[in-house]
Specification:
By secondary structure, the chain is α/β, with parallel strands linked by helices. The chain is 43% helix and 23% strand. It has ten helices and eleven strands. Strands 3, 4, 5, 6, 7, 8, 9, 10 and 11 form a nine-stranded mixed sheet that branches. It has a two-stranded antiparallel ribbon with strand order 1-2.
Length: 296
């Protein structure tokens, strides 16, 4: 089995069309067919079903695909790592991050990394937690940086919490609570609470904390984007509970006001995650050292 066969399989499994696969691989359709047939002989099972003019992955092909992706990605990352052993003047730092982490927390840290290693290309993928876990499983990224509210398989992945993020109540500067030094959950009973939709890790965490404190808001507005939530609060659509790190500019410009809730703290950890026993690249190790310098 060789990498060319694996790459051919991955491309064909994505497009399910021999003509399109041949175009992407800059070869002929018979060459693609020969590569797939050879790979199927190596494995001892069929990867595709050919029904009429349509192509489908077999059950075996579906299960084999993530392994093929892992092998290809592992080969490329190994070459990258070995080059970086001698010289961190070039190479790639490739990792995934959840939305809040990638947008608000990491840019300052990446700025420090870039100053120390200007030749290293930074590839940060910001996407949903489901996609992040898939990218890590298939070795498309070396590591993830995300909230500790996102579940991971602790038997497969190693992690460390390096930062504690506090979620705070925000109102606009004209709100009746804006002049208060502190409020209570009773003050929020008649407010519209703007939160991320159900199944969001942040929403699930807040719902757990609300139950813990015996609070239930009768009026909710669901918005999936943090920037849209902030703008909605600024324009008086309601109040929200968001990361204190994400509202620094709005607080400084007097667009939003943070109001502490008496006796209540909303804290979540931010951690980095990678495969157990994985040999991380020198670039990733240097990035982790910067993350570890953040205050927990």
């Amino acid at each position: 089995m060789n990498l060319t066969k694996l790459q051919t399989f991955i491309i064909l499994s994505d497009c399910l069309n021999f003509t399109e696969a041949a175009e992407q691989l800059y070869c002929s359709q018979p060459a693609v067919s020969m590569q797939i047939q050879s790979l199927e002989r190596d494995l001892g099972f069929p990867l595709f079903d050919r029904i009429g003019k349509k192509l489908y992955l077999t059950k075996q092909g579906e299960h084999f695909k993530p392994y093929a992706e892992q092998m290809i990605n592992l080969f490329h990352s190994s070459k990258e790592h070995i080059k970086q052993l001698d010289n961190l003047a070039y190479g790639t730092l490739s990792f995934g991050a959840s939305n809040f982490v990638g947008v608000y927390l990491l840019p300052a840290i990446l700025s420090d990394f870039n100053k120390k290693f200007p030749g290293i290309k930074i590839n940060m993928n910001i996407t949903s937690s489901i996609h992040l876990i898939h990218m890590l499983e298939s070795n498309k990224v070396e590591m993830l940086v995300l909230s500790d509210r996102i579940p991971i398989d602790e038997n497969r992945f190693q992690f460390k919490t390096f930062y504690q993020d506090e979620l705070v109540l925000i109102v606009n500067n004209q709100h009746r609570l804006a002049q208060k030094d502190v409020c209570t959950f009773e003050d929020l009973v008649n407010e519209t609470l703007i939160l991320k939709p159900y199944k969001s890790a942040t929403r699930n965490y807040l719902e757990e904390k609300f139950k813990e404190y015996g609070f239930s808001s009768p009026k909710y507005m669901e918005i999936s984007n943090l920037e849209a939530i902030k703008q909605s609060v600024i324009h008086g659509l309601g109040v929200s509970i968001v990361s204190s790190f994400a509202i620094k500019q709005e607080i400084e410009n007097d667009l939003l006001v943070e109001v502490p809730i008496e006796g209540v703290k909303f804290l979540r950890g931010i951690r980095y995650v990678h495969h157990r026993g994985k040999h991380l690249s020198p670039a990733s190790m240097q990035f982790i050292s910067l993350l570890d310098q953040e205050t927990i």
